[in-house]
Fold:
Amino acid sequence: DTGVSQDPRHKITKRGQNVTFRCDPISEHNRLYWYRQTLGQGPEFLTYFQNEAQLEKSRLLSDRFSAERPKGSFSTLEIQRTEQGDSAMYLCASSFIFGGNGYTFGSGTRLTVV
Amino acid sequence: AQKITQTQPGMFVQEKEAVTLDCTYDTSDPSYGLFWYKQPSSGEMIFLIYQGSYDQQNATEGRYSLNFQKARKSANLVISASQLGDSAMYFCAMREGSNYQLIWGAGTKLIIKP
Structure:
């Protein structure tokens, strides 16, 4: 396993367009997390999945955001009607449910809304 | 109130010197975990070290050690014998109780000078 993969690495989109990001976690990991990181700040929690169930969504996740994890494998994060304030790095991480304390992060998808 | 505070926005350190990155935290939960991550310019969050609130000894991982002072609620990262490749952003993060999400500080930008 090569770790957590995120695609694309960079995305430039016009305001109002929809975008979708993909995350492939470490295959043995049950939990998958999405974070958003704006320039000069630490990441902020968006949502997380345990297997295929989305168990929590942050208030940061407006109605324009939706995340899925079909079959408990990869996950997608979609942003509809993008706004300039959505410009950020979107980080995906995965972990085991029990045992260990490590969260493995992907390299992120950098979104720029113009 | 800030749960994780990193008071050093940036630091310059001479190569081969030791460096201490500060982190203070705030929680009322007796069970918590503290993490340090490194984020190079490529964007990936790289796990460095973990300290649990009930751990009796300070955590160490190679050149990284965590100076855990529970009464002062501080968890400073010490990097011994710094290398040019250590130049990056460093984030302190906390997980409270059985919560699954990490709460992050704003980070410290470390630059190692040759």
